[in-house]
Write a structure and sequence with these properties.
Elements: H1 11-24, H2 28-40, H3 48-59, H4 63-72
Length: 84
C-alpha cells in the first residue's frame, strides 16, 4: 500500500478533520482515507463494463444482426506489444 504525506495542511483543516473523524467513530487517518477514496472512486461512477452491457441491451439486436457483426469482427490474433 502507498503512503502519502500531506504538507501545508492548515491547523483549522486538521482540526475539522479530527472532529469529522470523531463524528464517524474513526481516526483522523482513517477519515482522510475515506475522503480520498470517495473523491477518487465515487460510488456513482460509470463502470465501463456495465455501460457497454446496458448499451447492448438497449440496442436489442436480432440474432441475424448479431451474427452479421460477429462475421465482420477481425479475428486476427493480437500480437504482443514491442517497446523498441
Amino acid at each position: 500500500m502507498a503512503a502519502v504525506t500531506i504538507r501545508n495542511l492548515s491547523d483549522e483543516t486538521y482540526r475539522a478533520l479530527k472532529v469529522r473523524a470523531a463524528h464517524h467513530g474513526r481516526s483522523a487517518e482513517a477519515e482522510m482515507r475515506e475522503i480520498l477514496e470517495l473523491a477518487a472512486r465515487p460510488t456513482d461512477r460509470v463502470r465501463l463494463g456495465s455501460l457497454l452491457a446496458s448499451i447492448g441491451r438497449e440496442a436489442s439486436l436480432s440474432e441475424t444482426e448479431a451474427e452479421h457483426f460477429a462475421q465482420l469482427r477481425d479475428k486476427t490474433p493480437a500480437e504482443p506489444m514491442r517497446f523498441e
